[in-house]
């Protein structure tokens, strides 16, 4: 296939690649460390999700924090599985395809970024227009906004995964389906 992407990776028939020995060594060192950090992040997000679900009175702000913590939890879960996949490939030459996890990883990452922007906007409204924010903001605005963010992020990432294919010789390079 012709394309703008070039690669130094050689793909094996079973789908794994043998690229730079330095990159393989780096993945053997960095992947376990990243899994460790991801597991600590999962524990931290679990500690935030627990009180939000069971004991905190919900308001506009806690709805955003709950959804942000949930998005981070999903992102870290998917990232941990992807890192374990990389470790299995690096240490034991075991490879499996995890493209559905990529959709959820990117979607939850996008949701997290959008929620951070929504939280910032909500805080700005609360500071700039405190009376309106307290007494005139519709009750379920933050819930509806969170639902719209989740739906649009998932739709965006699913459409990206179904519209573009990964270039067969270059990880990270995308081609429009039907052009190669």
CATH topology: Rhopdopsin 7-helix transmembrane proteins
Distance between the termini: 6 Å
CATH-level-4 superfamily name: Rhodopsin 7-helix transmembrane proteins
Derived from helix and strand composition plus strand pairing, the structural class reads mainly alpha
Helix count, DSSP H or I runs of 4 or more residues: 5
In CATH terms, what is the architecture? Up-down Bundle
Work out the oligomeric state of the chains in this entry: single chain
Low-confidence stretches: 1-17
Q: Number of DSSP strands?
A: 4
- The fraction of residues assigned to DSSP E strands is 5-15%
H and E string: EEHHHHHEE
Q: What spatial order of strands do you see in the largest sheet?
A: 1-2
The average pLDDT score comes to 80
What best-fitting shape do the alpha-carbon axes yield?
A: elongated
Helix share bin: over 70%
Query: Can you tell me the number of structural domains?
Result: 1
**What is the CA-atom radius of gyration, in angstroms?**
21 Å
Transmembrane segments: 29-54, 61-86, 106-129
Pfam families: 7tm_1
Organism: Equus caballus (Horse)
Protein name: G-protein coupled receptors family 1 profile domain-containing protein
